[in-house]
Amino acid sequence: MKNSPKTTFIPALGYDWLTGVYDLAIRLTMPENKFRQRLLEEVEPKASEKILEFGFGTGQNLLIGIQESPKSIFWGLDIDPKVKTIAGRKLQRQQMQVPLFLYDGQTFPFANNEFDKVFSSLVFHQLATRTKKRCLQEIYRVVKPGGSLVIGDWGKPKSKYRRFLFYAVQLLDGFATTRDNVAGRLPEYMAEAGFTGAGEVGYINTRIGTYCYYTGRKPE
Ligand SMILES: C[S@@+](CC[C@H](N)C(=O)[O-])C[C@H]1O[C@@H](n2cnc3c(N)ncnc32)[C@H](O)[C@@H]1O
């Protein structure tokens, strides 16, 4: 855990000193292209839509999103200054302009109903239950009526073997924050925040667990 102005957070790979090798770790343990492409397929970015990635990390999803839909307007929000530097450098190298925001873990620095869509990948399993719920309320606040939320994250393992593999993630990121994911509770929390039709729409089995896709919509 690392201190930020108002809250503690778990860095991308569990420990601050591992953040520099996050991309390599993902490449070695997950079918990276497949799970990110599918995530963006669920987001379905369209021209002129304003889309927020909550917990942009090292910027991999933003890079793919902009490549696939250059006329969408992507913004990013994270809590860790270290990943902002890494993502900012990558995006700049590709001459991609994406406003990247940091916040203190409390209120998102955005107005109500500011985004057409919000998406997030591999973030919620790093948040305590209380923080998961607060972040979902904040996402609900900033997404427009009729807008959507797409979450890709560790979900209920689809076999005993995947459950066993997921202990590796739990050892790095902690058991307290990952328990809700293993129990498949994210859709329930999305619905509690106000999203309708919240549910699992697909999954990918990886070397370290089952990565699930969840979607929901803010009512018109
Ligand atoms: C495992 S990384 C995922 C990065 C990226 N989304 C991906 O798919 O590779 C989790 C990210 O969530 C961020 N994070 C952790 N707690 C957060 C919080 N309370 N609010 C926003 N971001 C948070 C971390 O800084 C990290 O960048």
Lay out the secondary structure.
Elements (H helix, E strand, L loop, with lengths): L1 E2 L4 E2 L12 H8 L2 H12 L6 E5 L5 H9 L4 E6 L2 H13 L6 E3 L12 E7 L7 H14 E12 L5 H6 L1 H7 L1 H8 L3 H8 L2 E11 L2 E9 L3
The structure holds S-adenosylmethionine.
Question: How would you characterize this protein structure?
Answer:
The chain is α/β, with parallel strands linked by helices. It has one domain: Vaccinia Virus protein VP39 (Rossmann fold, 3-Layer(aba) Sandwich), CATH 3.40.50. The protein has a seven-stranded mixed sheet, sandwiched between helices. It contains nine helices and nine strands. The structure holds S-adenosylmethionine (SAM). S-adenosylmethionine binds next to helix 3.
Structural class: alpha/beta
Approximate strand percentage: 25-35%
Would you tell me which CATH topology applies?
Rossmann fold
Which ligands, by name, code or SMILES, are bound? S-adenosylmethionine
Annotated CATH architecture: 3-Layer(aba) Sandwich
Give a short account of the largest sheet: 7 strands, mixed
**Highest CATH level, the class:** Alpha Beta
Number of strands: 9
The DSSP helix count reads 9
Uncertain spans: 1-5
